[in-house]
């Protein structure tokens, strides 16, 4: 009996083992049948920038040909998120120009990015940027799941062209507003304010100090501030529990920023005004709104209208774009509504390019420019430009544009090495006496510039930047009407005067023209205040009648000083253009010296029998630039271009004070 029991126990154990082994085998077979989903590496194009991709870490496949210089890269080892992902991969040496797979990891923004040449790619330098990234070999870390489909900050991502699936996160809409895409990095920034930040592994010694936080940190003053609260709730959001102290920014007085009050400026102001506003990515949406508020306050203070100031707006980033020109909105209410609708474009801070754009395109008759109104440009700059402004500004000033700069939050000492053009504001304006430039330490003090700005742009007597060689003078022609000239030649002289006059911009606020004819006696043909338009001046020149008589040039100069230039405006350049065909019967030395001492720039043009030594005495020093001689009246026309050129060369060489 005992033997039978033992045998039965052995059989049960054997059956159990068989069942167990069968189950294990079955589970193995089942496991073999259940296949894990295969990871698909997303493909992107060469022009995709890291900042467009929300994912903090991802693997992508780059195509061939990303070594091309048109795919811009900013930085070395650690790259600004404004860079081409694949271009940076080639620059770093992780890829060659044939393409391949890479691992991209987002890191904190930097205070500056140094350009360098590496692996056939020239990277560029860049001031501080809100976010960075590094490129590593595509070796997935154990336990980390990488996305097969990338998430982009905009549904119109360039990656869509490569067949990539795109997604955009939409924040909950604030009542009364339109919902805008918010990046994952922005959401992390809000979360980190009340949570302990996690750290990312250090990719390399060169990037060791830049990889500790998976969100853009405040780097200098150009870090992008989070924009999840409206301006109306700004004060409370700054003081919310757990808020990052670095973002609790206040006015120097200690009070949180409030909407600037009206400037209460009552001025007779007729200007054509263009605001160049900073739309670069690093300015952030909240500061962009503060900037728009200043524009709205200026529009209110100026009392926009056809009989007074007109105002347009151009936004710059990578490239400038006109939001509206001078004639689009002709009252303050409509203008303020239009300003409120302006959206930020993003990009770099190419101020020089924007100034060139305004010079060539903005102040035209088609855009509402008025010939009698000074042209004024107010440029707002956060930090410093990413291109040079000096040459573009010089050309703008020579085109008659009056440039004002408002700079906000300049470079800290450790950031000055990244400034493209030191002292850029002083190089841009026509006078470095502080009249044309305003600086504020904080964006929340920007409203304090309202009153001084409005008063300055409307002070037309001090708008020296808008004065050029063609629109800033009182020009008095002193014409020899002696018997030796003759009627026919006198008409030729008048044609010469007409040809010179046509080159200038004529109005009561621009260049003004007067004329004196002389023989033994002198006659005022018309004064500076007689005619204020070019057609009227040209008609007046035609009507001048030939007098005939002797030649008293010295007396004519004295007469012109008393009857013409004594009534010249203080802010006008005084130019005397004297035309004679013979030697004077009286002395010219003392009258000529009197003209020079009174600041009258004198050009002496002699014809036929004119005395060369007298011309040189009459002319302003150096005589070679201010005295001319022709042997026949019919050759006078040849000297028009040279005289205009000398007038402008002399004007443009004036020292800036």
From TrEMBL:
Q: What is its main location?
A: secreted
Bilayer-crossing residues are none
Q: Where is the composition biased (Low complexity)?
A: 199-216
* Residue ranges constituting the LCCL domain according to the UniProt record: 40-133
Q: Does the keyword Glycoprotein apply?
A: yes
How the protein assembles, per its UniProt entry? Binds dermatan sulfate and chondroitin sulfate.
Stated name of the protein: Vitrin
